[in-house]
Write a structure and sequence with these properties.
Elements (H helix, E strand, L loop, with lengths): L2 E9 L3 E3 L9 H11 L3 E5 H5 L9 E5 L12 E4 L2 H6 L5 E6 L1 H7 L5 E7 L8 E2 L8 E9 L9 E8 L7
Parallel strand pairs: 1-6, 1-7, 3-4, 3-6, 4-5
Antiparallel strand pairs: 2-8, 7-10, 9-10
Catalytic activity: (6S)-5,6,7,8-tetrahydrofolate + NADP(+) = 7,8-dihydrofolate + NADPH + H(+)
Pfam families: DHFR_1
Enzyme class: oxidoreductase
């Protein structure tokens, strides 16, 4: 059975980043992202893929781009041109949507779960945003607060949302 999970870190104002980069550094969130996504397929837009110095280890990257001539020489990377093509490649497994903002917006109707790290700050300078979570569609099932500390400038909360009525999932 397919399980499609959107995973992101977003500020209180749903900011994700600016100029294809994050606006904060949360080492524990990076560790959680790695722990959850390792060994799975990860679906992302081209700009998100290009923001990495190299592909993330132990994950198959499915890259969505409108550019029909786009290629990469990295192994474990698959190029597709629609969200539907990406989802077709994860028919019977767990996969993660990892961004960016446009891809999250396209993928939400297909997702079964959201793993969101809510960064307790606002970033007005952001140029990319996570879609607003419609609580009539999504139910908060787990939350775990982490205060700011010497390694984390901002407090944050891990939030897990599950779809309220999975039968409506496309």
């Amino acid at each position: 059975m397919k399980t499609l999970i959107m995973i992101a870190a977003a500020a209180e104002n749903d900011a994700l980043g600016k100029d294809n980069d994050l606006l904060w550094h949360l080492p524990d969130d990076f560790k959680r992202f790695k722990r959850l996504t390792t060994g799975h397929k990860i679906i992302m837009g081209r700009k998100t893929f290009e923001s990495f110095p190299k592909p993330l280890p132990n994950r198959t990257h499915i890259i969505i781009t409108r550019d029909k001539n786009y290629t990469t020489d990295f192994k474990d990377c698959i190029i597709v041109h629609t969200i539907e093509q990406a989802i077709d490649l994860v028919a019977n497994e767990i996969a993660f949507i990892i961004g960016g903002g446009e891809i999250y917006a396209l993928a939400e109707k297909f997702a079964d779960k959201i793993e969101l790290t809510r960064v307790h700050a606002n970033f007005d300078e952001a140029d990319t945003f996570f879609p607003e979570i419609d609580e009539s569609l999504w139910m908060l099932s787990v939350q775990e607060f982490h205060p700011a500390d010497e390694r984390h400038k901002y407090a944050f909360t891990y939030l897990t949302y599950t779809r309220r009525n999975p039968s409506f999932n496309v």
